[in-house]
Write a structure and sequence with these properties.
The chain has about 180 residues and is mostly beta strands. The chain is built from two helices and 13 strands; from the N terminus they run ββββαβββββββββα. It binds dTDP-4-keto-6-deoxyglucose. DTDP-4-keto-6-deoxyglucose binds next to strand 5, strand 6 and strand 11. GO terms for molecular function: dTDP-4-dehydrorhamnose 3,5-epimerase activity. Belongs to the dTDP-4-dehydrorhamnose 3,5-epimerase family. It is an enzyme of class 5 (isomerase). Its EC number is 5.1.3.13.
């Protein structure tokens, strides 16, 4: 595996090192020791998948508030998706910045997103499936949404989403900590 830092502190592009032979290939996708030695969460008690039949489906940006903030290791198991991590940690050097990775099932790459960051995806083709390993169990009262087109973040999506949930479309824009409320 190869872990490459991104513009978000603590978020990494994870690439596999496939071992090919006459049968096909074998690749390690996760190693707790490697992750722990790099300061990444290494225990994932919950895994999820999402399937989106249509190109242009946007999911996110979602995160859980403390003390249920979760790290995610996300990969496309079918298709290609544009994945975004958004740093919402007020004390982080990359606070309110975003980073993207294109996850491709044929590349078998992944995106590690640390706790305190929101996560979203836009499918780049039909029939996309995304598999996520979560470091914290789902806790609905702690579920939060950051708006995909919030001008405060200015995320450069490859194109306008065609399909998204009402809750993702209608969520309020973010107010940075300490911001005055007009
Ligand atoms: C996350 C989660 C959700 N749910 C239920 C809640 C809803 O009734 C339904 C769909 O949830 P949601 O609309 O949050 O699913 P997506 O919009 O695909 O969001 C997912 O993908 C984006 C990119 C994310 O970052 C989250 O990891 C994840 O929420 O599954 C559960 O039952 N368990 C869970 O762990």
């Amino acid at each position: 595996m190869k872990l490459t830092p991104t513009a978000i502190v603590g978020a990494f592009h994870v690439e596999v090192s496939p071992i090919a032979d006459h049968r096909g290939l074998f690749a390690r996708t996760f190693c707790a020791e490697t992750f722990a030695s790099c300061g990444l969460e290494s225990v994932f008690p919950q895994c999820n998948l999402s399937f989106s039949p249509h190109r242009g489906t946007l999911r996110g940006l979602h995160f859980q508030a403390e003390p249920h903030a979760e790290a995610k290791l996300v990969r496309a198991t079918r298709g290609r998706v544009f994945e975004v991590a958004l740093d919402l940690r007020p004390h982080s050097p990359s606070y309110m910045k975003w980073a993207s990775v294109e996850l491709d099932a044929t590349e078998r790459n992944a995106f590690y997103i640390p706790p305190g960051c929101a996560h979203g995806l836009l499918t780049l083709e039909d029939e996309c499936e995304v598999f996520s390993q979560m470091s914290t169990a789902y806790h609905p009262p702690s579920a939060r949404i950051a708006r995909w087109n919030d001008p405060a973040f200015a995320i450069s999506w490859p194109f306008e989403p065609l399909i998204l949930s009402d809750k993702d479309a209608e969520c309020a824009c973010y107010r940075p900590q300490g911001a005055t409320h007009e």
